[in-house]
Each structure stands twice: as C-alpha cells, then as structure tokens.
C-alpha cells in the first residue's frame, strides 16, 4: 500500500457497540456552566475573564492555546502550553473548535465534553503520551486562549511548507476516519486537497500526495453514501494514475450503489484486471453481475407480458414458429400504438436535446 493511505482493499470499518452511546448526555461537576449547544454534550464555565468580546477569534483564525485535559477519574490525557490550531479545521478535538469561538483573549475556561466532541465512540485512542482513552469517554479540559492570529496565508508560505501542512491534514483525516468520524475526515481530506491544488501544483511529489488524498477522500465519501462526490474523487485519482486499483474499485462500487450497474461493472472489472487475485474485487464483480442479470430477466419478463407472450416448452421448430407468428400478429394489431409511442419518444428526446443545447 502506498505510504499514508487510510485503507487497503478491505471492507471499511463499521460502527460497533459504541455507536449506541452517541445519544449519551453529560452533566457538569458544579454550577456555573453553560450548555454551549443546548444538547447537554458540551459545557463551558469561565474561570478567568478575558479582554472582552471584541477579542474573540473567528472561524479560520490560528489560535494558540494552553490545554490541560483529563478523564473524569482525573487521569491526565494531555498537557499543552502552546497548542496551535486553525479554528474549524478539525486540527484537534471538535470541542475546541466550538468552544474557542466563545472565548476572549486571555480567558481561561473549563470545558466538559461528551465523546461526541472529543475522541469518539468507536474505538480506544492512544495519545502521544501513551494514555489510552476508552471509547465513549467524557473529557474535562482547562483551556486558556493565549493568542489569536489571522488565518494561514498559504501564498506567502510557499509550496514546500504548504505541502507539509496538507500532508498533516491528510494524516489528521486518517485519524478521524479510523475513529469513524467521517464528517471530520471529509473536512480534513477536502482541505488537504484544496491546499495541494491551489498552492503546491509544481512541487515535486505533489501528484503522489494528491492521489493519496483523493483516494482517502473517496473512501470516506463512500462510507457516507456521497456517491457522486466519491466518483469525482476517483476521477481525480485516475486522471493522475489511470491504473490505480482503489480508484477503479471505489468508482465501481459508487456507480453500482447509484444503480448504474453497467458502468459500475466496467469500473469493477477494470480493478479486477489490475488485481485478479483480490477476493474483495471478485466478490463485488460477482454481486454486481448477478444483480444485472436479475434486472435483465425482470425486464425481459415485463416485455413478454407487454407483447402477450407466455413462457412454455419449446416444441421444436413448430413451437418457435407459433411464437414468431404471435409476435407478428401482435405487432400488426398494435402498429399504430408502437408508431405513436415512437413519435412521443422522439419528441421528448428532441425537446430534451434542445433544452440542454440552450441551457
């Protein structure tokens, strides 16, 4: 597998038992907390007043935070004196993206957040300090807003630094994908792709970086049933690497899921030609082929019913001759109907063509 891609050609993870905890609410340890979102999942209490509402940051601003985080039993999770994040870009837990927008410069506050806005419900997370956070864990944080700066100016950074930031956002997307936070993963992969497209076009290695990002983006879009977006991401990969197996496979699955079995099978078979030993691709090709045959059989039965034909034993040439005579007889009796239908179909087709041409 190319370095940095979130998945190989295996089934993507599905939500486990922890998904049932997503309706869980949390309560603050004492009075004075504000229910930030009105859903009892994120609480904020000001400990030290800041410099006033005019000093609050805006979405996209870079902020420097002092952060102390722990589990409800007091187990330390994280201690950062100079944590830098871009607000709204999923650089850290989502609770910070939400709550810091309500903080004033130099303010210190206490946050209590459910796992929904912290480390998720699907799997345990191991921090950089080696602390294991169980799935569904409530988090207690003390946050100080140290400084507020303008959003990153990628044009002034240059392509090398922009490429580094894009890769960091891709890696963050991988973390969120593995936690099954697919909305956050899409956000990170999308921002990484935007940086690569707009600020790193001529940098060596950018093509490989774009392939990794768009492949991971497509995998995530498939997970949330955003099939048109996934197809577009796969096409971006195939424009750079026409033989990329993952892109052919995910495009095929997306097309099949949209009901386009013929083109979906074409993409799946392209993946199978390039990886004939993949059981996953073989299974998807087999399933799509069976579904296509089932639909074709259903259509054939419908047409026979419309033509007044019945299935029965083939009594040699005589039986076939009788069947052909039935078909000719029906067509002669209903020639006017077929002609009318053809005229209507032609009119609709020409009208549609004229509309598309004039649009």
Automatic annotation (TrEMBL):
Catalyses which reaction(s): [protein]-peptidylproline (omega=180) = [protein]-peptidylproline (omega=0)
UniProt-recorded Gene Ontology molecular function terms: peptidyl-prolyl cis-trans isomerase activity; protein folding chaperone
Secretion signal span: none
Keywords from the named record: Isomerase, Membrane, Repeat, Rotamase, TPR repeat, Transmembrane, Transmembrane helix
Transmembrane segments: 335-355
GO BP term (any one): negative regulation of apoptotic process
One Gene Ontology term, aspect cellular component: endomembrane system
Keyword Transcription regulation set for record: no
Region Disordered, annotated ranges: 1-35
Domain PPIase FKBP-type as annotated: residue spans: 60-149
Coiled-coil ranges (or none): none
InterPro entries according to UniProt: FKBP4/5/8-like, PPIase_dom_sf, PPIase_FKBP_dom, TPR-like_helical_dom_sf, TPR_rpt
Entry EC number(s): 5.2.1.8
PANTHER family for the chain: PEPTIDYLPROLYL ISOMERASE (PTHR46512:SF1)
Protein name as catalogued: peptidylprolyl isomerase
UniProt organism field: Macrostomum lignano
Source organism phylogeny: Eukaryota, Metazoa, Spiralia, Lophotrochozoa, Platyhelminthes
